[in-house]
Amino acid sequence: MNSKYGKWLRLVGIAIATILIIWVIQRYGISQLHANVENLGVWAPLVLFFLRFTSVIIPALPGTAYSILAGGLLGFSQGLLVICIADLCSCSLSFFLSRQFGRSFVKRLVGEKFITRVDTLSQKHLERNFFLMTAFLMTGFFDFVAYAIGLTQASWLCFIPALALSILISNPPIVALGAGLLAGGKLLLAFAMLGAFALALLTGFLQRKQPIA
């Protein structure tokens, strides 16, 4: 399966997840969803953490929808905290698995159809430029980037600050989008639109300068 087909697979997954979210909202209403989430207590954040965490460890699964859902159901602050912790843990684990067990293990984990993307990213010498590493971790390919950096000579002490910075910059607009759309926060929605536009420009710039498989 080529990389083009993989991109379509991710888009289809995101579309399905988005349609499901819209259907649930229309079926039960946002106020009822909030009430149900409050009744679930700690289980709602844990479930969203698990879904986001899994979507990073297995990059074929779409993760953006979970960021939007976290913002809509948990609110901006709690939703952002859950997503940031999930990304920090999952990307750190991806780096560790890649560094500890090598390319063959990563290939078995992400699948043969996606290993080419990991290989391409690992050959970009991201470890030589902290800001370039951070920029790639801010894109929608950050799950593959974490695996790829683990295959390079980048140290853990170099990877973690870049990861933390990228998470703090890239996650708020997406979570705010969920909080703005689902909870009716106009200010958050405006912030989310501007942030998402900036991230899209960054991804497009990186793809033109150094194409991602």
Overview of this structure, please?
There is one protein chain. With 213 residues, this protein is mainly alpha-helical. The protein has one domain. The protein is 84% helix and 0% strand. The chain has 10 helices and no strands. Helix 1 runs parallel beside helix 4, helix 5 packs across helix 8 and helix 7 packs parallel to helix 9. The longest helix has 35 residues. The radius of gyration is 17 Å and the shape is globular. The two termini are 13 Å apart. 38% of the residues are buried.
Describe the SSE topology.
Layout: H1 3-28, H2 30-40, H3 43-57, H4 64-74, H5 76-110, H6 112-122, H7 130-137, H8 142-150, H9 156-183, H10 186-209
Helix pairs in contact: 1-4, 3-4, 3-5, 4-5, 4-9, 5-6, 5-8, 5-9, 6-8, 7-9, 9-10
How much of the sequence is in beta strands? under 5%
Report the helical percentage.
over 70%
For the record, the count of structural domains works out to 1
Order of helices and strands: HHHHHHHHHH
Provide the low-confidence segments as ranges: 185-190
Query: What does the average pLDDT come to?
Result: 74
**DSSP strand tally:** 0
- Based on CA atoms alone, the radius of gyration comes out at 17 Å
Class from secondary-structure proportions: mainly alpha
The shape, in one word, is: globular
The biggest sheet amounts to: none
Gap between N and C termini: 13 Å
Question: Helical stretch count?
Answer: 10
